[in-house]
Model the fold of this input.
Amino acid sequence: MAKNILIFEKIASDLVVTQDINNLVKLEECAKEFLNEQNVDGSEVAYFNFAINYAKVGDYPNACKIIEIAMKKFPESISLRALYLRVVTEIGDDTKAKELCNEILQHIHSLPKEYWSKQVFVYVIEYYRTLLKRETREDVREKYRTNIDMLLCDFRTHFPSLEDSYLIESEIYRKSKPSKERTLLLSAIENSSTCIWSAIRLAELHYEQHEYKKALQYLSKHCMSVAYDDTNKSHEAYVYYLSAMCKSNQILKSRFCWSLKKRELRVKSIYKEFELALKPQMLLSFSAKQNAEKQICILEVLTGVKSGLAIQ
Done:
């Protein structure tokens, strides 16, 4: 009797929530069991999500193997093909993979843009960006730049209310033209129905400039009231973390301007945000955890208000 892909997808989804060494080992075992199965039933979406779980933890070889099987089961799926382009570039130089990628690109580009989903646009653009980074011949690099510019234009035309096209383009200019990055992020906020990630990035930029009030304005207006699902816990954690970092720096900068009682209440509210960000299920990055714990210790020493949090 054939197994259903949902069984494997559920196991993998549960394991990636906490990416410790034991869960990564279990993920590898789950992939081996799946790959040894002769016949696995299920939908295209379930196969897609199953592969994504492995990409999330950097297991790109297993992600590619899963997608290759899925593409045979769903030969008309443009989403699976675009995902393969995005994932396979993380593995390295592979002649066979390059040939398959060229075939996939030809197929995807032969389809009208009306058939392209948001994910297809994102993955194809990211694929060209990876090729651009690796290419040394200027004529070929210019070809990739042209492809990226055209796809960004098409993406914005077909999905005018999504912030993704602005985000991808802003990342291109992050190092070379910071002012251009900021302009694109502001355009995303002005034109998109939701703009969480653009607001987070703008808050980061203001935080780096020690403009904590402006950073908090972006976070409170666009990020704090959002209902995050289980797949976006790391983003929710980062919002709490960044908000707490801004507020704690504010209070450290002007702590003597506050009454003792008001300062204590303010600091405790900051500790609460740090506590939310540091919950294991929130998946805050290791470096952010270190920064948060260091900031809590500084707050405790300089304000005299204890957090009650278990700091390692």
Q: What stands out?
A: The chain has a mean pLDDT of 89. Residues 227-312 form one domain. The first strand starts at residue 3 and ends at 4. The first helix runs from residue 5 to 16.
